[in-house]
């Protein structure tokens, strides 16, 4: 490198180095910040689920979850589905992969129950609703072929709870599928963050 090049490097303003660094740091912090915002400001919603895969060897012990609203055969029965297919599908049965949508969920009748009752899907739409009744919320999902994903599919828990949770799930699944639900927080943008897992009357916090 020539002496002139060295002098040019030294003469560059410091912001030329700082701005790219801050941009990269911002990208790293964006996801946690979004989760914190959703957790603080979000509305509590209960989703019906069943376990799919009890072990993820790459990231430690976990439960991989599949929700009732993840299944297309459940969403296809809802108002708004035909409009989604007409606008965002090349196949009459599936949405194009990567298509974002919103599932409108409605709370069950008030009352304290353990486990809490799951919210009921009542409609699907491409755009986020700007005005909903107090007992409804819009949850954002994304098409992944034959399923809809919401970023709520994996629940990680401490190794110390592994055996207890496995046994509880196994017992609850013996002909009583509805006893496994997940509590999530959903913010005003439709983003969801998992809060806890209910197995029968036992609650395991995330």
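Sequence proposed for the structure above (206 residues):
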């Amino acid at each position: 490198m020539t002496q002139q090049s060295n002098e040019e490097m030294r003469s560059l303003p410091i912001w030329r180095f700082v701005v790219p660094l801050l941009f990269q740091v911002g990208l790293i912090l964006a996801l946690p910040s979004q989760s914190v915002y959703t957790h603080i400001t979000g509305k509590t919603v209960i989703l019906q689920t069943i376990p799919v895969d009890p072990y993820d060897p790459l990231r430690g012990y976990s439960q991989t979850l599949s929700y009732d609203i993840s299944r297309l055969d459940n969403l296809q029965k809802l108002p708004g589905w035909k409009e989604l297919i007409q606008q965002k599908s090349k196949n009459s049965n599936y949405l194009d992969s990567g298509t974002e949508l919103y599932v409108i969920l409605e709370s069950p009748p008030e009352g304290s129950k353990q486990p809490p009752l799951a919210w009921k899907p009542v409609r699907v739409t491409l755009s986020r609703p700007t005005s909903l009744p107090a007992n409804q919320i819009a949850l954002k999902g994304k098409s992944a072929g034959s399923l809809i994903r919401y970023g709520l599919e994996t629940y990680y828990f401490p190794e110390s709870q592994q055996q207890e949770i496995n046994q509880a799930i196994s017992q609850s699944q013996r002909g009583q599928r509805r006893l496994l639900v997940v509590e999530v927080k959903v913010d005003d943008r439709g983003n969801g963050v998992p809060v806890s897992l209910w197995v029968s009357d036992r609650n395991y916090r995330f």
